[in-house]
Amino acid sequence: MIRKSRLHSGIGVLTRCSVVFWSIFTSAEATQAADVPAPVLERTATIALKGPVGGLDHLTIDSKRERLFVANTSNGTVDVVDLKTQTLIKQIPDQGKARGVFYSRDADRIFVGAGVGGMCNTIDAEKLEPIRSVAMGGDADNVRYNPKTRRIYVAHDDREIRVIEADSTSVSKRIAIPPEVGAFQLESNKPRMYVNSKTGYVIVIDTEKDEAIDRFSVAPAGVNAALAIDEEGRRLFVGCRENPALVVLNADTGRKVASLPIPGGVDDVSFDAERGLVFASCGEGAIAVIRKIDSDRYESATTIKTAKGAKTSVYHAETKTLYLAVPRSADRPEQKNPEVWAYRLR
Q: Which fold has domain 38-53+181-346?
């Protein structure tokens, strides 16, 4: 009986020691995270575009030539900005109500989803001249390119992804998505594409078969519009407008690992893998910056006030610069042109 009592006593001591050690360990981690200074996004440039009052949409970067491409929706152009001089150098006309725009370094092409007529346009990135167009009818929005299969993916009519063979320009498949289709992203090292269905699900696509194979819920958040991937950490960052939040999902299982509040009207999310930062640009007039502590823990780092309606952005990791599209607005009569605001990470 004495031995048994001593054994139980020993176990109790070990248990209490373990709890104390774990408390100290987690407390130290929390203190360390709290001691990390908040990232600073400093606005370093205002780049004037040309066009009427109205919307700007998505942006993409050609890092080889240091050029930024902006879907100038209200002007019907794709605007080309020289990032070295931070000036507008060309407006590529006849792009309908340009919405989605994506530069592929592999193809050295710019792909444009033009809202009017459901056009998917291809532009030579060196000459900045249109090469070909594929008419689908209806409406075209976000666009991506898979260099491994040489296929173009276009959000069409808010209810499907059209798959276009880049060589023949023929539509090879239609992938039905519960409406409305939001942002979507391709993995570079795995045959997977993740598509936001604004019904509150991320649809998982096998890009070898171009078929839906799973879906992940973002509830209780909803109207999931924006999406970015941490491929190494196997995480999806999903920007949601209903119960506004950045929802973090396991990219393989769909398990929700975190949810952090963000301002309303999110439309783009970017991830800086080197620095572990997520940037969410929100139409309410703010950029939310989320810090990754580890793959399952995240914290709100800072929020930068911007301009109402400025909801689309792209992050240039090589220069640590976030580019934000700021439409010309009747509510800002002092703003004479649509603009791109550049924010440098300090």
A: Methylamine Dehydrogenase; Chain H (2.130.10)
Token pair 């060309």: residue: 90
Pairing state between β 339-345 and 321-326: antiparallel
In this structure, what are the phi and psi dihedrals at residue 18, rounded to the nearest 5 degrees?
Answer: -65, -45
Element (H, E) at 6: helix 2-35
Q: What is the mean pLDDT of the chain?
A: 91
Question: What single letter denotes the amino acid at residue 307?
Answer: A
Question: H-helix or E-strand containing 289?
Answer: strand 286-294
pLDDT tens track for 166-194: 988 899 999 999 989 999 999 999 999 99
Please state whether beta strands 339-345 and 297-305 pair in parallel, antiparallel, or not at all (unpaired): unpaired
Strand partners for 270 = 279
Query: For residue 69, how far is the Cα from the chain centroid?
Result: 16
Whole-number Å distance between alpha carbons of 16 and 339: 60
First to last CA, the chain: 65
Task: Specify the pTM.
Answer: 0.89
Q: Are 341 and 310 in contact (CB under 8 A)?
A: yes
Place 40 in a pLDDT band, splitting at 50, 70 and 90.
confident
Q: Distance (Å, rounded) from C-alpha 79 to C-alpha 91? A: 4
Common-topology check for domains 38-53+181-346 and 55-176:
yes
Sheet strands (E) in 109-234:
109-114, 119-124, 129-135, 140-146, 151-156, 160-165, 171-176, 181-186, 192-197, 201-206, 211-217, 222-230
The class (CATH top level) of 55-176 is: mainly beta
